[in-house]
Prior knowledge:
- This protein is mainly β and 116 residues long.
- It is built from 2 helices and 8 strands.
Amino acid sequence: MQAFIFxxxxxxxxxxxxxxxxxxxxxxxxxxxxMSTSFNGSxxxxxxxxxxxxxxxxxxxxxxxxxxxxxxxILESVGENVTKFKVGDAVYSEMxxxxxxxxxxxxxKTGVSKRE
Length: 116
């Protein structure tokens, strides 16, 4: 899959499109084919390494990130323990403390909602 990552803090010029392995959901996760995402204020703060992200531990983490915590998409697969969702469901989510929306696929816990 392709994803935009940053390995150096700064501005949007530091986002690079690279190939990564498709994530594999654990037993309690789902795999979403991302159809839309947003680049919002928290993504900008993470990219710029603001005081807010330092407070969240951003200064202590290695710097290779996929931004984008707001996503919508279609379920590609579900973990063994997931019963609320099935493959093909349209879903959306804001994933607090989690990034990954600037990629073709995103695995996450099932704190997402179905689109009706």
